[in-house]
Amino acid sequence: MKSTAFLSRNRRLLVLCAVSVALHGALLELAAQRQPGPLAPPMAPAPLALRLVGLAPHAHGSAAATQRAPEPEPGQQATRPAPAPAAAPVRPAAPPARPRQAAPPAPAMPGSNTASAPATAQPVPGARLLVQMPGRYRVSLPPSARLRYELLLQGRPAPDRPAYLDWRSDGASYTLDIDGLAGRLSSRGMGGDAGIVPLQASETQGDRALRTSFDPETGEVRFAAGGASAQAVIGMQDRASVLVQLAAIGRASTEQMQDVIRIAVADAAAVVISQYQVLGQEDVATGIGTLPAWHLAQAAAPGQARLELWLAPSQDWLPVQLRLTAADGSVSTQVLTRVER
Asked: Domain spans of the chain?
């Protein structure tokens, strides 16, 4: 009785439920027909293929620059391009090997304006070897002059000993005679681009006059002692002419008066490199007044005589004072007293 009353009262609700169940069943059947199975994974989207198009350097907005690749038709799946082969890793190229540079040449000596000749050694019996060629300095030969000095031996005047430097030159040839603490010396020769060019030189040792000759044709120096010879070099001097050559170097340019001045000097038996250290400027009291001068000192090994000289620019750089320290330590000095032009 109660069931019949319930059905009569809710008939409309039951009809709606039956219709809903039928609709859901139809939808489930339709979905089952479109999908292959309940466990089939969803299809992954096709990868997007890109193509890089090199642009030619033409005007902006041209057809070639704005052309697009054709799109696939609806329903047609885009083909995935085959992967390009992996490129081999590029290694940075090793830097090219730097060529080995030769050792830089030895610097030119102060004041030289031409390259020095290659170093050579001339073996001379009883003499030191010539191991270095000095460079050529700028020179300006001083005018002719005769300088007289007072000679002091161990601080005491020696009136019986003459002391002078007699330099005479016409630019093409010269004569030079010196007497004083360095002994009696003479030199004859020519004037050239390198300054003084000796041809003959002599020095008195006791009662003998030893002569040295310079042959400009063969370029040899012949020594009177032992009859040996050596190769001459540019700017070579003898014991007398080196004093005036130093004056010519200072007279040409004061800038050359620095560090060490090196000059090849031929004495009676050998060719040596004389080195004169520039010690700076000093005032020297002379017989013609106090003169500013450049002080140079010759380098000497222990036990050898050492010569110092003072070159005065006011006297064409000729020496206004000389000092000789002998091997035994005794000191002799000669100071300028008069200049004759």
From this structure: 145-340
